[in-house]
Structures are given as structure tokens and as C-alpha cells.
Amino acid sequence: MCGILAVLGCSDDSQAKRVRVLELSRRLKHRGPDWSGLHQHGDCYLAHQRLAIVDPASGDQPLFNEDKSVAVTVNGEIYNHEELRKKLVNHKFRTGSDCDVIAHLYEEYGEDFVDMLDGIFSFVLLDTRDNSYIVARDAIGVASLYIGWGLDGSVWISSEMKGLNDDCEHFECFPPGHLYSSKTGGFRRWYNPPWFSEAIPSVPYDPLVLRRAFENAVIKRLMTDVPFGVLLSGGLDSSLVASITARYLAGTKTAKHWGSQLHSFCVGLENSPDLKAAREVADYLGTVHHEFHFTVQDGIDAIEDVIYHIETYDVTTIRASTPMFLMSRKIKSLGVKMVISGEGSDEIFGGYLYFHKAPNKDEFHHETCRKIKALHQYDCLRANKATSAWGLEARVPFLDKQFINVAMSIDPESKMIKRDEGRIEKWILRRAFDDEEHPYLPKHILYRQKEQFSDGVGYSWIDGLKAHADQHVTNKMMRNASNIFPHNTPTTKEAYYYRMIFERFFPQVISQNSTFRIYL
Q: Where is this site: Important for beta-aspartyl-AMP intermediate formation (predicted)?
């Protein structure tokens, strides 16, 4: 994932301001180590740190329309860019970048083009003809984005909090599926799928329809001009992603450049459940498998870096982000720049074990909707930032817009966990890929019960974190926790320990002069 930074209407077009924007943009350099770009028009600045995945040779940003009156800085992947180019026959494209369509779509359709984009993205588009601008974020919030406001009336946009926290009076998470327009001065939701209203769907479950929708979601994410692989924990979700990728890779443009041999990656403590299961799946699929080990101490030593990069103090997110952070560094060292991962399945299909307590299908469906809407705060944030800390991009096919529409239109009665009928969690997904003639996975993997990511990497990982926190947080500190942290007061020593580190990096959260809505 790339890094974007924009300062809009700052009432300052001096060289000093340009230097400051460049300085802040460099804070995002880990996200895009391949190229840096900055476009200034009056008191508006668009900066970009590029991770080159598609068209590495000519796709540097910011991007422009034909006469450079429209400029765009974008972090994302537009999977349907070739189809969109066919609709823009009267336009001339400067690059082969998938993101090059954005400026031209704006010329044709105005602010209403965003829903035409199939992919993950966050972008700022500046129209220099009237000095207006729009900002948008993808449907689910896979691409991270923040917005802030300065005392001088300026609007700040950044892929990460660290790009604007020192310069804004107020800043917050940019809501997924929304667009911010300077013409109206506010947000509006561009993503309005049927499931968002949480009305109970009634489409009968068809395993082949669900299977094909997910296969399409994976296949479109094979769009890359650089080496890539799959994250493989050996659980259902990552194993399905790996199986489909291995099955269809040979017929893609990517295979012509890089070969059809799929690489898979796994991380864990020595002898952890994930390592064993992933090894078995990799052997079955014939991938080139890379197994990375870490110790509890390795993870503890990385905690401060993890919190700095993922920008949260949520306990579960930090636990799961740390192994992913360590693995991403190893993957990048092998020359790989993109991985496909399995986030989102549990939210869509009710895969968490507590879903077996759902009293009826209505409550089951409402909870899946709520979980999907909150993904940008947790699993999306982890997958995005733990990988981009090392200039690695993670793609998540379960969060494909079209796939979500298919999966969330199914009568939730089919998703209900009914053990007496042999229906464990995510039964409809398992059954969709239970093909006797051309099996995707071994049966015992296809029906393997879920492990939490931070458990799967090794059960002693959580115990080690708790013990470490216990050494650094006293009972006296816990008694005063509500006075020190009145908002989202930590209730455990582990949570208190993470919060102390987070506040050290981002003190604006508790300062008197600056506020931040963190959504935790």
C-alpha cells in the first residue's frame, strides 16, 4: 500500500510550508519506498509515497488528466481499470497505472464516479479549475485514511495518523465508504449496498454461486507486475485463498512474467498449530512454502514498533499484528511486494465461536453486519499497517464488494451454527468448496475449526505478553487507570502497557488543545 498526504487550503504557499509537507510525507515512506512525489497548486499540496505494484516504470504519482488541471494522489488498487478505460475512449492516459482512471472518471462523471471503482483505495483529487477537491475511501476501509483540520482552516489528509497528528487541531479516522467534498464541506456515504440497512435477506443458499463469487474475487487480485505470494496459516480462509490462487494462477498475465509456481508464507512460534497446518496445506497445493519462526521475546521486543505503525492500543489487534509485522519484514526481504490474505470471512459468515449463541437468524445477520462495518478498526487496520510497515501490500478477497453482496444476500438461516445437524461455523463456505471430483483442500482442513490468529501462532504468545505487561504495570498504576485514561480506560495490565506506549507516540489524543476520535 502506498502513502498519501494532502494539505488543502492552508493559506500558505511558502517554501517553508512545502518543506513541512515533504517532511510529513517522509513519515509515510515505509508504505511506499519506490518513489516520492509532490504536486503544489497555490496553497494545496498533494504528496505521495509509492509502492509500485502495477506499471512500476511509469505509474509515479500524483497522477493527472490530459491538461493537468485535475491531480490525484491515491493509495490503492483498481481491479477493473481495464474495463473503465474502455468507457473513457476520448481520454488519453499518461501511464499504465490502474489508478490513472480516477482523474478521467471525475472529468466524465463528476463526484458520482466513486462507486464505479472496484478495488481498495483512498485518494485525494484536486480540481485546479475551481480549487475544489474530493477525498474518498474504499467501501470497507481496507486502505487506511485519516482527516484533520488546522486552525487556519486547512484540511489535512493522511494514510496514517503520524502524517497529521502534530499539525491538526482535530483529527479523526476517515469513515469507510464515504466521500468528503470541499463544495459541501462534509461527508456523504457513497457505498450503499442492500445489506447496509441490515434488513434480513432471503436469497436461498446456492453453493456454486458462492464458490464462483469468491473465485472471481481472488482471481481479480492476481493483477500485479511484481512478485507476490499468499499468507497461509493452514486455517480455512487462508487455505481457500491459497487453493484458488494455485488453481488459477497459470492462466494469468502474472504467471507469464513470474511463473506459475505459487509462494506461500506462514509465521509462528516453534511447533505452533499454524505452522503444522500450513505445511500440510502447502504440501497438498504444491506451493513453495516459507516458514518463519519467532520467539516470545522477539515479539515483545517489537511491540513498540508495532504500536507505532498500526496506531492503535486495542489489545487483540496488537497481539495479532505483531507476528504479522515480523513475517512481513521477512517476506519483503525475499523480494515479494504483495500478498493475498484471508481477512473478513469470519465477519461475513459468523465464524467466531460466539456466533453459536445467536438465538435466531435475525440476530445472527445483524451481528455480521455490525462486524463488517467495524472491520476498518481491527482486522483491516492490522492487515494494512502491519504489512505496509515494510512496504508490503496485503489484498483481501473476502472483502471484495461483489462477493460481500453475494454472501450477505443469502438467507442467514443457512449460516446458523447447528452442531446437531453437522453444521459448524462457516458451514456454507466450507460446503461451497467441498468438491469430491476436483477437491480444493483435504477434508480435515476444509472442516478445521477456527483458531484465533494470535492463538494459532503459538499458545504461549499471549501468556508471554501478559507476563511482560505484569512486570511493567503495577497494581497501584491500575488503581489510578481511570484518572490517567478516562476515555477507554484499560482494565488489564496488558491493555495499560499498550496504552502507555500509544500515548507516548500520539500524545495529542489526551492533550487539552487537540482531540482525536479513535473509534476503539
A: 343
Number of domains in the chain: 3
To the question of whether residue 98 is assigned a binding role by annotation, the answer is yes
CA 137 – CA 125 distance, rounded (Å): 12
Is 177 annotated to bind a ligand? Reply is no
Cell numbers at 361, concatenated:
437468524
Is position 266 annotated as part of the catalytic site? no
- Expressed as residue numbers, the domain containing 34 is 3-192
pTM attached to this predicted model: 0.95
What pLDDT sits at residue 506?
93
- Establish whether 101 is an annotated binding residue: no
Catalytic pick from 2, 99, 266, 369? 2
Q: Which of 164, 192, 220 is the last residue of a domain?
A: 192
For the sheet with 155-158, list strands across it: 35-41, 44-50, 3-8, 155-158, 146-149, 170-173, 515-517
Is residue 520 a part of any domain in this protein?
Answer: no
- 127 labeled binding residue: no
The tens digit of pLDDT for each residue in 282-335 reads: 999 999 999 999 999 999 999 999 999 999 999 999 999 999 999 999 999 999
- Do 164 and 113 share a structural domain? yes
SS (H, E, C) 387-431: HHCCCCEEECHHHCHHHHHHHHCECHHHHCCEHHHCECCCHHHHH
The CATH number given to whatever domain includes residue 420 is 3.40.50.620
Rounded Cα distance, 38 and 48, in Å:
6
Tell me whether residue 342 is annotated as binding. Answer: yes
Q: Does residue 154 lie in a domain region?
A: yes
Let me know if residue 308 belongs to a domain: no
415 assigned to some structural domain: yes
